[in-house]
Design brief:
Blueprint lengths: L1 H26 L2 H9 L6 H9 L4 H13 L6 H9 L4 H13 L6 H9 L4 H9 L2 E4 L3 E4 L4 E13 L10 H17 L4 H6 L2 H9 L8 E16 H56 L4 H20 L13
Antiparallel strand pairs: 1-3, 2-3, 3-4
């Protein structure tokens, strides 16, 4: 019985020792400590334990530290930890600094960390500083002063400016500014032929305006890749204006015709009204003795003769003497 108790006690003690040893190895990554010591990038055991407690992966920090030391860069463990805790990509920042150092591009860890935390790819930015990027603009449509539409495409060669990556405008702004410069240059040209003959004038005009100010890029050159002739916008606008003027003239003519018709109808009404007064005037003349029966018959004979002559001549007057309505 005592022997079994001693055996169980020994196994329990062994289990506790193994658990304590495993927990100690978890807190103290011995292989990482040895790798850092062998690479002349020494990291203390307490520092490694502190990383575990702060939930910072020691492997990421130690490997970045080893890479920087081997490349001849001195970056402190505290800076690496602080950048990781701020949400940055430690390995990418260190690789970017190594690439910048090899390319003789001055870059501090503070600057690299700021670019990374700003949301930009710091390694790609360094690569663009060494090897410029070609940005092709979409098809830009503009109209010269002679009314001819031109469609142009340009290629912008630009490299990243490390000092302006934080707070500088991106690629979309460069494309927009180049497009604005192309529209302005083509629009100020007297004829579209002048643009086709010297497309390099567009590049010179755009480069002279300093479009890369306030951006994260430095424009090296602007090349006009293609210029196509589009529609005759000036002629189309003139045709549209002529059609609009024609419609306005027709509307005014119709208004004048309607006024003339209304005036004619008004005059006819006045004539009819005046003719209606004739019998009244004759009756009044008979009553006052100013007109006799023979005068009346002579007037009727004159009207009959006039109607007969009109009938013989093919006239369209009414036999009563008045015009047909």
């Amino acid at each position: 019985m005592g022997t079994e108790t001693e055996v169980f006690g020994s196994l329990g003690l062994l289990f506790v020792v193994l658990a304590a040893l495993g927990f100690l190895l978890f807190l103290i990554p011995i292989p990482l400590w040895i790798a850092a010591w062998a690479s002349n990038a020494y990291v203390g055991l307490l520092t490694l334990i502190g990383m575990r407690l702060r939930r910072v992966p020691p492997g990421t920090i130690v490997n970045a530290r080893i890479s920087s030391v081997k490349a001849g860069l001195e970056i402190s463990i505290n800076d690496l930890e602080a950048h990781f805790l701020a949400g940055g990509d430690v390995e990418r920042v260190v690789n970017a600094m190594i690439s910048a150092d090899k390319a003789n591009i001055p870059m501090t860890f503070k600057r690299a960390a700021a670019i990374d935390l700003a949301g930009r790819d710091v390694l790609e930015a360094v690569q663009m500083s060494v090897l410029p990027k070609v940005i092709e603009t979409p098809r830009i449509t503009a109209v010269a002063m002679d009314g001819i539409q031109l469609i142009a495409v340009s290629r912008v060669t630009a490299r990243a400016n490390i000092d302006r990556l934080v707070g500088g405008a991106g690629e979309e702004t460069v494309i927009a500014r180049v497009g604005e410069g192309m529209v302005s240059t083509i629009g100020s040209s007297a004829t579209h032929k002048a643009v086709l003959e010297n497309p390099d004038n567009i590049s010179k005009h755009i480069l002279g305006k300093g479009l890369d100010a306030g951006t994260a890029f430095e424009i090296l050159s602007i090349d006009i890749a293609d210029v196509d002739v589009g529609q005759n916008i000036g002629a189309k606008l003139q045709i549209d204006q002529a059609n609009a003027d024609k419609q306005i003239a027709q509307a005014k003519a119709e208004e004048r015709r309607a006024m003339a018709v209304a005036l004619e109808q008004e005059m006819r009404a006045r004539v009819v009204e005046a003719e209606a007064e004739v019998p009244k005037a004759m009756a009044e003349a008979f009553r006052q003795g100013n007109m006799g029966i023979m005068d009346y018959y002579r007037m009727k004979n004159v009207q009959a003769d006039t109607a007969m002559r009109d009938s013989i001549a093919g006239g369209e007057d009414d036999p009563s003497g008045g015009p047909k309505p």
